[in-house]
Amino acid sequence: MNKIVKDAMVLTAITLIAGFLLGLVHDITLDPIAQAEYEKTQNAYKEVFADADSFKEYEDFDADAATKTAGEAGYENDIIEGAQVALDASGNPLGYVITITSTEGSQANITLSIGVTSDGTLNGYATTAISETPGLGMKVTENAFKDQFAGKTSESYTVTKTGATAENEIDSVSGATISSRAVTNAVNAGLAYFRSIGGAQ
Question: Can you give the pTM of this predicted structure?
Answer without folding.
Answer: 0.81
